[in-house]
Structures are given as C-alpha cells and as structure tokens.
UniProtKB/TrEMBL annotation:
Protein name: B box-type domain-containing protein
Length: 150
C-alpha cells in the first residue's frame, strides 16, 4: 500500500510553505505567516465597510436635521397661508361693504329721481300743464332709470 501524503501548498504568491489553514470565505489555503496577513487584509476590508456604514449613518442624521429644518419651513408656509387667507377674507368683506354702499347709493339715487319725477307728473296732471315735449322728456328719464336698475 502506498501512502500518499499530499500536502497543499500555501496559495500566497511565491510562498513554498505548506498550507495549514483553509479560509472558508475564499477557499484558499494559507501557511501560518500568510494566515495572519490574510486576516489583517480582511480586517482592513471590514474597517472600510464600517467607515462606509458610519458615513452613511452620518448622512442620515444630517438628513434628519434638514428635515427638522423643513418642518420649520412648513410651519412658516402654514403661517403664510393662514395670513393670506385672513387678508383675502378681509379684502372680500371690504369689497362686499363697498358694493353694498354703492348699491344703496344707486338705490337712493333712483328712488330720489322717481320721487322727483312723480312730483312733476302729479303737478303736470293737476295743473293740466304738459305737452308732447314734456311727455318725451319724462319717458326718456324713465327709460334711463330702467337701464340704471338693470
């Protein structure tokens, strides 16, 4: 029976030593010296991953701070919105009052004109003192007042 003793060499470049440990992650076999180097290499890679994690976490925290600033902006926008609504409502109320005043003035004007015209018509009838020209003037005044009403 022949006994074959196959020793696996270290997979590091130019190393002639026998590999004593196989890495489960990369499936390479290393000698005692290169196992330590390989672990140091993996440790440095882990440091890079941790650094990336910490950087990302810092970015998330900064984003949260920005979002807190956004809340302040949103509150300012809400206040501006409410102030604008109040101003619009005040302006609308003022315009309504002005329109009511104008309508009241127009109504008073038309009522006064109708009252004056009624007095003239009564007097003309009582005195039996009117001619075609007077009728045309009174009719024109009535037409003008009708247009003002509409």
């Amino acid at each position: 029976m022949s006994v074959s003793s196959s020793k696996t060499p270290c997979t590091s470049n130019d190393c002639k030593n026998v590999g004593i440990l196989k890495c489960e992650g990369c499936s390479q076999t290393f000698c005692r010296i290169h196992v330590i180097e390989h672990r140091d290499f993996l440790s440095h890679q882990l440091d890079g991953v941790v650094l990336e994690h910490d950087t990302l976490q810092q970015m998330v925290m900064e984003q949260e701070n920005k979002e807190n600033n956004y809340h302040s902006l949103f509150k300012q926008i809400d206040k501006w919105e409410q102030d604008s609504i109040i101003k619009i409502q005040q302006t609308a109320n003022e315009v309504r009052q002005e329109i009511e005043t104008l309508i009241g003035s127009q109504r008073e004007h038309i009522s006064k004109e109708l009252h004056d015209l009624a007095k003239q018509l009564r007097k003309a009838r009582e005195d039996d003192d009117f001619i075609e020209t007077d009728l045309r003037i009174w009719t024109d005044r009535l037409e003008k007042l009708k247009h003002e009403v509409h």
